[in-house]
Design a protein that fits this description.
Blueprint lengths: L10 H11 L4 H10 L4 H13 L1 H13 L1 H9 L10 H14 L8 H6 L3 H7 L6
């Protein structure tokens, strides 16, 4: 698994993406860490999160994945070339994504792929902490 760097803009998001894509294997991975006595404090913390906040973690990861456009746009605009020519289109794509976020809650692919009942949870939740 990738490490998380505080100086790279999207490093944390990249780790979240890896967790989201492998969410179904996460408990098995944590159990294997426990059996091998690897990362005692971190493994213990991950065990607590998975046993007490699993559904919230699923939801947060799914929502983060649905905002992938922010990460992709940043990477696309990196460099010292003619990226300035891409800025208007990139910002319009982000604005369009923002306009459609609320309308597509019932069709959010990342949420359903992480857990089939999560869209229902999202619709019935009164607030999502960030």
């Amino acid at each position: 698994m990738k490490g998380y760097s505080k100086i790279c803009w999207w490093s944390r998001w990249e780790v979240m993406k890896q967790l989201a894509e492998n969410f179904g294997e996460l408990e098995r991975f944590i159990n294997k860490l426990q059996e091998s006595c690897i990362g005692e404090a971190t493994t213990r913390a991950m065990t607590i999160v998975m046993s007490t906040q699993k559904r919230q973690l699923q939801l947060e990861l799914a929502l983060a994945m649905d905002l992938e456009i922010l990460c992709a746009t940043t990477y696309r605009l990196e460099g010292d070339g003619l990226e300035i020519l891409l800025v208007y289109e990139a910002l319009e794509n982000i604005r369009e994504r923002g306009r459609t976020m609320g309308m597509e809650a019932r069709n959010t692919t990342h949420i359903e792929s992480l857990h089939p009942s999560t869209p229902q949870l999202l619709r019935t939740s009164t607030a999502v902490g960030v």
